[in-house]
Design brief:
By secondary structure, this protein is mainly beta.
């Protein structure tokens, strides 16, 4: 299988660890082609059928907007990137104040780790 491209045609693509295609909003149809769709006001909008998963992911990024830029290393540490979290990082959540909270599940309990100015700081 082909590798997943994080960028194509100048757009940051929405990567997904949950999709077998590797991209959010992209699925492989029984025909073997790749279909792209996204939601607008709760309704599914079909974006088309494409020869490759990357082409479908580009269509999704054009319709939904580029994926946020994500730093994968900071302070000599490798960060835990997440394709399902809107901040781009595991255990990091945007608060209503515009700051970022780091939280982690420890033995079934939600543990608050702190509030930070940026998502990268919270991820470290």
């Amino acid at each position: 299988s082909a590798s997943v491209a994080p960028v194509a045609r100048g757009l940051r693509l929405h990567l997904s660890c949950l999709s077998s295609t590797g991209y959010t909003g992209v699925r492989k149809a029984p025909s073997g082609r790749y279909e792209a769709a996204h939601r607008v006001n709760g309704r599914k909008v079909q974006l088309g059928s494409f020869d490759t998963a990357v082409e479908a992911a580009v269509a999704f990024a054009r319709a939904a907007g580029q994926a946020p830029a994500v730093v994968t290393e900071a302070g000599g540490l490798r960060l835990h990137v997440s394709s399902v979290n809107s901040t781009g990082y595991r255990c990091v959540y945007a608060s209503d104040s515009g700051r970022f909270q780091a939280r982690r599940d420890v033995e079934g309990r939600d543990v608050f780790l702190g509030t930070y100015a940026t998502a990268v700081e919270a991820a470290v």
